[in-house]
Amino acid sequence: MKKIEAIIRSEKLDDLREKLDASGYTAMTVTEVKGRGAQKGILLEWRVGEYRVEFIPKVKVELVVNAETVDKVIEIILSVCSSGKVGDGKIFISSVEEVVRIRTGERGQKAL
Amino acid sequence: MKKIEAIIRSEKLDDLREKLDASGYTAMTVTEVKGRGAQKGILLEWRVGEYRVEFIPKVKVELVVNAETVDKVIEIILSVCSSGKVGDGKIFISSVEEVVRIRTGERGQKAL
Amino acid sequence: MKKIEAIIRSEKLDDLREKLDASGYTAMTVTEVKGRGAQKGILLEWRVGEYRVEFIPKVKVELVVNAETVDKVIEIILSVCSSGKVGDGKIFISSVEEVVRIRTGERGQKAL
Amino acid sequence: MINSGDTAWVLISTALVILMTPAVGFFYGGMVRKKSLLSTVMMCFASLFLISVQWVLVGYTLSFGPSKAGLIGGLQWLGLIGVGQAPNPDYAATIPALAFMLFQAAFAIVTPSLIVGSFVERIKFGAFLIFTSLWSLLVYYPVAHWVWGVGGWLRALGALDFAGGTVVHVTAGFAALAVALVIGKRIGYGKDNMEPSNIPLVVIGAVLLWFGWFGFNGGSALAANGLAVSAVVVTNTAAAAAALVWMVLSWLHRRPSVLGVATGAVVGLVAITPASGFVDPLSALAIGGIAAAISYYMIVLRMKLRIDESLDVFACHGMGGLWGSIATGIFASQAINAAGADGLLFGNPGLLWVQIVTVAVTAVFSFIVTYALATLIDLIVGLRVSENEELVGLDISQHAEVA
Amino acid sequence: MINSGDTAWVLISTALVILMTPAVGFFYGGMVRKKSLLSTVMMCFASLFLISVQWVLVGYTLSFGPSKAGLIGGLQWLGLIGVGQAPNPDYAATIPALAFMLFQAAFAIVTPSLIVGSFVERIKFGAFLIFTSLWSLLVYYPVAHWVWGVGGWLRALGALDFAGGTVVHVTAGFAALAVALVIGKRIGYGKDNMEPSNIPLVVIGAVLLWFGWFGFNGGSALAANGLAVSAVVVTNTAAAAAALVWMVLSWLHRRPSVLGVATGAVVGLVAITPASGFVDPLSALAIGGIAAAISYYMIVLRMKLRIDESLDVFACHGMGGLWGSIATGIFASQAINAAGADGLLFGNPGLLWVQIVTVAVTAVFSFIVTYALATLIDLIVGLRVSENEELVGLDISQHAEVA
Amino acid sequence: MINSGDTAWVLISTALVILMTPAVGFFYGGMVRKKSLLSTVMMCFASLFLISVQWVLVGYTLSFGPSKAGLIGGLQWLGLIGVGQAPNPDYAATIPALAFMLFQAAFAIVTPSLIVGSFVERIKFGAFLIFTSLWSLLVYYPVAHWVWGVGGWLRALGALDFAGGTVVHVTAGFAALAVALVIGKRIGYGKDNMEPSNIPLVVIGAVLLWFGWFGFNGGSALAANGLAVSAVVVTNTAAAAAALVWMVLSWLHRRPSVLGVATGAVVGLVAITPASGFVDPLSALAIGGIAAAISYYMIVLRMKLRIDESLDVFACHGMGGLWGSIATGIFASQAINAAGADGLLFGNPGLLWVQIVTVAVTAVFSFIVTYALATLIDLIVGLRVSENEELVGLDISQHAEVA
Ligand SMILES: Nc1ncnc2c1ncn2[C@@H]1O[C@H](COP(=O)(O)OP(=O)(O)O)[C@@H](O)[C@H]1O
Ligand SMILES: Nc1ncnc2c1ncn2[C@@H]1O[C@H](COP(=O)(O)OP(=O)(O)O)[C@@H](O)[C@H]1O
Ligand SMILES: Nc1ncnc2c1ncn2[C@@H]1O[C@H](COP(=O)(O)OP(=O)(O)O)[C@@H](O)[C@H]1O
User: Fold this and answer.
1) Do residues E125 and E398 lie in contact, with contact meaning Cβ atoms separated by under 8 Å?
2) What is the torsional sign of CA F46, F48, F53, F58?
3) What percentage of chain E carries pLDDT values higher than 90?
4) Which atom of ligand 1 is nearest to the CA of A39?
5) Would an 8 Å CB–CB cutoff place C109 in contact with chain A?
6) Which end of chain E has less neighbouring CB within 10 Å, N or C?
7) Chain mean position to CA B41
8) Which residue of B29, B63, B99 sits with most ligand 3 atoms within 8 Å of its CB, as the best mutation to test the pocket?
C-alpha cells in the first residue's frame, strides 16, 4: 500500500474531492498546512505598505491506496490542481506497511 | 522504528491519551485533520434546511515507536477508539529510518 | 529521497526558516500540531488555580530532500532548535519513493 | 425649543443605529466562507464611510430638502448649508435639525449594507463602491423622500412607515434579489460546502443589531416619550417572538440552530420596524411570529429555485419588510399613536390598501432600477471578479488580507 | 408627568441590560470547550427570547401586579393589558409604565442566563428550555415580587436591594449550585483538559457586561438624577477594585490571568449591585475588593470539593450577591439616598439584620425549589444528554452546528 | 440645577467612553501576533481597572481640584471627599459633580491604554503596571489640569481642546514614541512575519471606538444640546472622510485593506477630537481627510526609520492629535460655539498661535517625562521580558494563558 501526500492550493480542494469521489477514491484525510517553495511567500497589506508572509496556506491531502492505483490518483490530482503557475504544489509517494480499520480491527487491503 | 498514524474521532483523544500514558507511551504528536471515508460527510444545520460538510473533523495521532511495540499500541487504540460505527478511523503503519532528539542530538532507539 | 519531519518549538520556526533559506533549503511544509513527550503538558492559569494542558502546541516542519542532504538539514535544525531544555522536539527521517511537481508533472529528483 | 431629554435620546439612538452597519458586517461575515469573511465585513464598513460622506454632501438634501413635486428633495441643503443647531419643526420640533439629519444618515448608511448579503464572495470591490454610491442616489434618496419627506407623494397618500419597513427593508430586499440575478451564482453553488465560517461572529452581529434596533425604532419617535417607549417594547417583543418561532420551525425540521434563531430575531426586528410606532405588544407577538414563518418558507422556496441570493436578504428584509408594512395596515391603532391611523382590525381597511400600494410601488421601483443599475455596471466595469480570484477568495484577491 | 430625560435614561439603560444577556453568553461561551461553545451562547440567547415572551404574557403581572398577600402579583396585567404609556406612580412617576415594565423584563431575562454556567456542556437543550421557563415562574417572579413589588413581604420588612443583588444574583447563584448537584459532573471532570476555548470572547463578554451594568445599576434609579450618577460611579469603582484584587490574588498564586481579572470585574459588579444606590465610592472600593477575595476562595473551596458547578455561578453570583446584600447593611448611608436607610457603619444595625434575613430566605428558597425542579425534570424528560452526545459536544449533538 | 436630559446624555456618554478602553484592547490585540494577543488585551483592560481606582483616590483632585498656580490641582478632593450629587458649576452647572468626575475618569483611563500600542509583545506586565500608574501621575493629570482645569495655565492662555486632542492624543502619541525608543525593537523586527493575528477583532475594536467616540466628543458638551449634536455630527463626518482617504491611499499603493480603513477611521476620530465643538461638517471633511494623509505618510516614514513603535500610536494619535489641535486654530468658528473662538479662516490668526504653543508644550513635556520615566523603570525593574519569554509570547510568559 502507498501513501499519496499531495500539497495543493486550498481553493482546489473542493474540485479535487469531487473528481476523486467520482473515480471512487472517497477516503482521504486533509490537513491545513502552510508551505514554502518556489513561490516564496506572498505579500499582504498592512495598514500602510505591505509585509511578506513567508508561508502560504496550503492543503495537504493524504490518501492511502493500493500500489496499483497510485498512478491513477496522481493523474487526477495533476488534472485538477495543475494551473501551471508557481505554487501548485507537490505530490509525495511513500510506502505504508499496514493498515488497520479501527471500527472492525480488519487489517491490510480490505481495511482500505 | 515504526510510525503509527491513527486517525480517530476527536472525542476519543482524551481517553486514548490516558490509556497510552498508562501503558508508558507518553510521546505522541497530534494534528487536527479533516477526513472523509465510508462516513462521507455530516449534515449540519443552516438557517433553514441543512448542508453537507464533506469533511469531518478528526484527530490524527502519530507515535513513533520501536517495531516490537507496534502491536501493543494498535491494540490500545482499537480498544479505546472502536465504537463499531462508521467513522471510527484508520491506523497506518510505516517505517521510520532515523530519529534524532533535538535537545541532545542523540539518534536512533535511545532518541525515542 | 528522504522526508525529514521535525517537531519543534513554535517560537523557533522563524529562525529555522531563515537558516534553511540561507542554506538553500527553501521548500518546506509546516503544520501546527500538538505534542506530548518528556515535557508532559504545561500548566495554564484558570480563573483560580491552574489546569494542565496535556498537549503543547508545536510546529511540524516537513522537508523532502535528496538522501545526501539529510545530514546537512539535520545539522541546521539541531543548531537552531536545540535549547537543551525538555520540549525541544524530535526529528524523524523516512523514505519517499516518488515526488511529482504538480505544476509541470515532472517526477523524481528534478521535481524537488 | 430644544428639549434635552429628547435630544439625548435621539443622539444615543443615532449612535445605536450607526453601530448597526458594522453589525450587519459581522452578521454576514460570519456566514460566508472564511476566505471572504473580511471582504464581507469591509463592504458593510465601506457603506458606513462612503454614505456618511455622500449624505452630508447631497443625500440629506435630496431626501429631506424642500420637495420637488413630491418626487425628490431640492438642493437647498447641499453640504448641509442651512442645517444647524436650531430645530426644523417640519421634522422634529424639540431637537436640533442636525440631530434629525444624522439620525436619518444612519438609515441611509445601513440600507445599502443590507444588500451586501446578496452578492458576497464574488463581487469586485470597486464595482461594489460604484453600485452603492449610485444605488443610494437612484433608489434610497427618492424613496426616503416619497415616504418621509414633507410633501413626498407616498406620505401624502397616508402611508405609515414608522421606522423604515418600506424605505429601508423593502428597498434593500428587492434590490438584493435584482443584483443576485444579475451577478449570478457563486462557483460551486449547490455543490461545494459553503459553510458559515464563524457562527459566534454571526451572533455578535445579531446581538448588536438587536441592541441597535432599539435606537432604530425607538429613536424614530424623535423624542423620549411614551411613543418611543412603546416602540422599544414592541421591538423587543417581535424579535423574541420571531426567534422563538424560527427555533420551533427549525426544530420541527431537525435541530434548533443558532444560525436559525439569530436569523429569526433579525426577521422579527425587520417586520416590526414599520409598525413599531403604531401597535401594541400582543400585536407585536403576532407580527414577529408570522414574519418568521414567512421568511423561513421563503428561504425554502429560494433554495428550491436555486437562486444564489446568498444570505437571503430578500427573504429576510424584502419579505419581512413587506409583511411588516402590510401588518401595519392590519394592526395599527390610534390608541397607541394618535398621529397614526387605525388599521383593518380597528375598522379601517383603507390603511391596509394604502400600505399595499406603498409596498408594491417601492418593491417594483427598487427591483427595476437596481436590476438596470447592476446590469449597466456589469457591462461597463464588470461586477464579478475573475474565476481564480473567486476561488482564492475575496479577502486575498480584493484586499490582500486574511481573516 | 413624563420627564423626557428620565425616560431617555431608562430606555437606554434597558437596552444596556438587554445586551447583558447575550454578553453572559459570550462570557460563558469562551470559557467552555470549543465543542460546546455555540450551545452555551445559544442557551443565553434563548433566555432572551423565551423570557421576553413569557414576561409580556405573565411575568410582569406575576412580579409587579397588585399583590396577593405579599407573595405574588395578581393577574390583572396579563398580556400587559392596562400597562401603557402613562406612568405608574407606584413604581416610577416620571416615565411610562411600559418603560418600567421593559426595564424589569431585562432583569428577568438575564437572571436565568446566569444559571447556564452551572450545567454547560451536558444539558439537553429541550430540558434547558423547560427548566428556564419553569424556574422563572417558580423562583424569579415570586422573589421579584417579595423584594420589589408594592406590598411584597420582604420589601415591607425594609430590605434594600437597589438593583438585584438578592433578586438576581442570590437566586441565580444558589439555583446554579442546586442544578449542578442534580445534573452531576461532566465526563472527564478533573481528569481531561477543560480549557477555555476562546478567551478573547470571554473578554468581549465581560466588557459588555461592565458596559451594560451601568444601565443595570444606574437605570435602577429610574431617573436621570444624582442617585443614578452615584450608582454608576460606585459600579465602576467596585468593578475596578475587584478586578485589581483578583489580579493580585492570582499573581500571588502564580500569574495574573486575563480570565481572572475578567472574572474579578464581574464579581465586583455583582457585589455592588444591591448597594449601588446607597453607598459612596470609598465603600465601593471596599465592597468590590472584598467580594473578589470571597469569590476567589470560594472557587478554591468548590474545586477542592470537586463539585462541577462548571463556571462558578455560585461563587461569583451567589456569594457576590450575598456579600453585596450584607454589605448594603453595613455601608448604606442616607446621605447618599434619603429614601434608603443607614447601615451598621452609620449606627443602624437593624438594617444589617433585615439584609441577612432577606438573603437567607431567598437563598434557601431558590436552592430548594430549584433542586426539586431540576430533579423533577430529570425524572420526566432527563436533564442530561447521552454519553456519546456529551463527548461529541453539544454544538453538534444539540444544534448540528460547529463554532 | 440638575437637568435630567443633560445628565442622561453625560451618563451614557461616560459609558460609551469607558467602553473605548477595552475597545482599544481589541483594536490592538488583533494586530499583534497570536502569541501576545491576550497580553495586549490585558494591558488595556488593566488601564481600565487600575486608573479607575487611582482616579477616585487621587487623579480627579490632581486634575480638577482647586488649582495650585495653574500647574496642578490641590488635594481637597482626595478620595472624592466633597464631590457629590450636586453640580459643580465651575465645570458643569446642570449635571451632578460626580457625573463630570466619572466622565473625566473615562478620559484618564483611555489615554494610557493608547500608549500600549508602542511596546506590545515585549514588555513585562509588572513594569507596564508601574509605568501606567506613574505616567498618569506625572503626565496625564498635570496636562489635564493645564488645559481643562479651572485656573490651568494653558486654559488661561486661551487654548481650545474640546475633547482631548492635546490632553489625550498628543500626550499619548509622544509618550508612545518615547517608550518605543527606550524599550527597543521586537526580536526579529523587520525580518520575521509580524502579521496581524485577528483582523475581525481589529474591526470589532475600531467599530466600538467609533461608537464610543460619539460619547467622547458629544459628551464633552456636558449637555444634550445643539453643541453636543454638532460635535457628534462632525465626529462621524471626520471619521468617514479619513477612512475614505486612507482607502484611496492604500489602493493607490496596491489594495484597499480592511486594516487600513479601520486605522483611517480612528485617525479621523482622533483629529476631530479637539475641534469637534468648534467646526462645521465641511471643515470636518477636511480635517479628517487631511489627517488620514498625514498619519499615512508618517507611518511610511516611521517604517523607513525602522523604529518599532509597533502599532503606530505616534503616527495615529500623536500626529492626528497635533493636526487636529492645529486645525482647530484654522477652522474654529464662533458661529458653531459662541463660547469658543474664531480660527484663522475666520480672521483670527491668534488662536492658531495659541494652539501651536499648546501642542508644542504638551508634546515636548510628554516626550521628555515619558522618556525619563521609561528609562528609570528599565534601570530599576527592567522593562523588557527575557529573550525566551518574548519568543514564546507574552500570553504564556506573562499570563500563562493562550488566546
Ligand atoms: N521539498 C519539499 N518538501 C516539503 N514540502 C514541499 C517541498 N516542495 C514543495 N513543498 C510544498 O509544496 C508547496 C508548493 O510548492 P511550490 O514550490 O510553491 O510549488 P510549485 O512547484 O508549483 O512552484 C509549498 O508551499 C510546500 O508546502
Ligand atoms: N484510505 C485512506 N486514506 C487516508 N485517510 C483515510 C483513508 N481511509 C480513512 N481515512 C481517514 O479515516 C477517517 C475515518 O474513515 P471512515 O471510513 O469514516 O471510518 P470507518 O472505516 O470506521 O468507517 C476518514 O475521515 C479519513 O480521515
Ligand atoms: N515518539 C514520538 N512520536 C511522536 N511524536 C513525538 C515522539 N517523541 C516526541 N514527539 C514530539 O516531539 C515533541 C517534543 O518532545 P519532548 O519529549 O517534549 O522533547 P525533548 O525530547 O526535547 O524533551 C512532543 O511534544 C511530540 O510532539
Assistant:
1) yes
2) positive
3) 98
4) 18
5) no
6) N
7) 19
8) B29
| 3-state SS assignment for residue E345 | helix
For residue range F304-328, list pLDDT tens digits in order.
999 999 999 999 999 999 999 999 9
Rounded distance between C-alpha atoms, residue E68 and residue B108, angstroms: 83
Q: Is C92 helix (H, G, I), strand (E, B) or coil?
A: strand
Using DSSP's 3-state secondary structure scheme, residue E342 falls into coil
Q: Is the pLDDT of residue D335 over 90?
A: yes
Distance B38 CA to ligand 2 centre (A): 7
Q: What residue spans define the domains of chain C?
A: 2-111
Q: What is the DSSP letter of D346?
A: G
From ligand 2's centre to the CA of A69, what distance in Å? Answer: 17
**Nearest atom within ligand 3 for CA of residue C90:** 12
Lowest mean pLDDT, pick from F125-139, F186-200, F229-243, F330-344: F186-200
What is the predicted pLDDT for the residue at C40?
79
Task: Look over chain F and give the mean of its residue pLDDT values, rounded to a whole number.
Answer: 97
State the nearest Cα–Cα gap between B14 and chain E, in angstroms.
6
- F391 contacts C44? CB cut-off 8 A: no
Residues of E in contact with B83 (CB under 8 A): 388
Q: Is B86 helix (H, G, I), strand (E, B) or coil?
A: coil
How far apart, in whole angstroms, are the C-alpha atoms of residue D27 and residue C73? 47
Q: Could you tell me if C3 lies within 8 Å of chain B, comparing CB atoms?
A: no
Average pLDDT, chain A: 94
Residue D312 has pLDDT above 90, yes or no: yes
What pTM was estimated for this model as a whole? 0.97
Q: DSSP for E292-304?
A: HHHHHHHHHHHHH
Cell of D333: 391603532
Beta bridge partner(s), residue B45: B50
Question: Is E91 within 8 Å of E100 (Cβ atoms)?
Answer: yes
- The cell numbers describing D213, all together, are 434596533
Contact assessment for residue D116 and residue D34, using Cβ atoms and an 8 Å cutoff: no
In which region does residue D184 sit, left (phi positive, over 0), alpha (psi from -120 to 50) or beta (all else)?
A: left
F150: closest CA of chain A, how far (Å): 40
Q: Write the single-letter amino acid at D391.
A: L
Q: Which residue has the least CA distance to atom 8 on ligand 2?
A: A27
Contact A13, A111 (CB under 8 A): no
Nearest CA to ligand 1 atom 19: A87
User: DSSP letter string over D143-167?
Assistant: HHHHHHSTT-HHHHHT---SSSIII
Domain A2-111 in CATH 3.30.70.120? The answer is: yes
The answer to whether E201 touches E364, Cβ cutoff 8 Å, is no
> Could you tell me if the CB of C36 is within 6 A of ligand 3?
yes
Alpha helices in E30-75 (DSSP H): 37-54, 60-64
Residues E111/E105, Cβ–Cβ less than 8 Å: no
Read off the pLDDT of residues A28-79 as tens digits, 9 standing for 90 and up. Answer: 999 999 999 887 788 898 888 888 888 999 999 999 999 999 999 999 999 9
| HEC string for E109-165 | HHHHHHHHHHCCCCECHHHHHHHHHHHHHHHHHHHHHHHHCCCCHHHHHCCCCCCCH
Q: Are D194 and D389 in contact (CB under 8 A)?
A: no
* Structural domain containing residue F215: 4-399
Q: Is the pLDDT of residue D381 over 90?
A: yes
**CA C65 – ligand 1 centroid, Å:** 11
In this structure, what CATH number is given to the domain that contains residue F245?
1.10.3430.10
- Asked whether the predicted pLDDT for residue F193 surpasses 90, the reply is no
**CA nearest neighbour of E20 among E212, E182, E288:** E212
The confidence score (pLDDT) of residue E194 equals 85
Task: Give how many domains chain F has, as a whole number.
Answer: 1
Backbone angles phi, psi at B4, to 5 degrees: -105, 120
Phi then psi dihedrals of residue D94, to 5 deg: -115, 5
Q: Is the pLDDT of residue D168 over 90?
A: yes
Rounded to a whole number of angstroms, the distance from the CA of E22 to the nearest CA of chain D is 7
